[in-house]
Specification:
136 residues; mainly alpha; Leucine-rich Repeat Variant
């Protein structure tokens, strides 16, 4: 990853189709993604989230997706924000209530880019609640 991935397309293709399948077979390796969230390399940080997208389509690794999203919550890089937002969106297809709860709990700290990605497939009423400014 650190040596050969240098753009979002190669990051997403490699992570979704290679690393995602690998961690389904060997889930103990997901613990390494935690270290990736702290990398100076934006592609490693994005990879920590997007590597879980294929398993998330099957309803797997919700706890790990939420952990990674939490670690990346305030990342300043928009491609990292889009990556963990995408992972949350896919996870929400099987675990809508839990992902919505995560979004609502963190929406004041979560960049709008990540928030919009995370709620993209949710019903309109939930989207409105998530996008509403907090009451003061």
């Amino acid at each position: 990853m650190d040596k050969y991935v240098s753009n979002w397309a190669s990051c997403d293709t490699f992570c979704n189709h290679t690393i995602g399948v690998f961690v389904e077979m060997y889930p103990d390796y997901i613990s390494r993604f935690k270290k990736w969230t702290k990398s100076k390399n934006r592609w490693l940080r994005r990879a920590a989230a997007v590597s879980l997208i294929v398993p998330a389509r099957k309803g797997k690794f919700l706890k790990e997706i939420l952990m990674i999203a939490n670690l990346l919550l305030e990342d300043k890089d928009d491609l990292v924000q889009k990556g963990y937002g995408w992972a949350l969106k896919v996870a929400s297809q099987k675990h809508q209530a839990v992902v919505f709860g995560f979004v609502m709990k963190n929406k004041t700290r979560m960049p709008r880019t990540a928030l919009r990605y995370a709620i993209e497939k949710m019903p309109q009423d939930l989207k409105k609640r998530a996008m509403a400014k907090p009451k003061t």
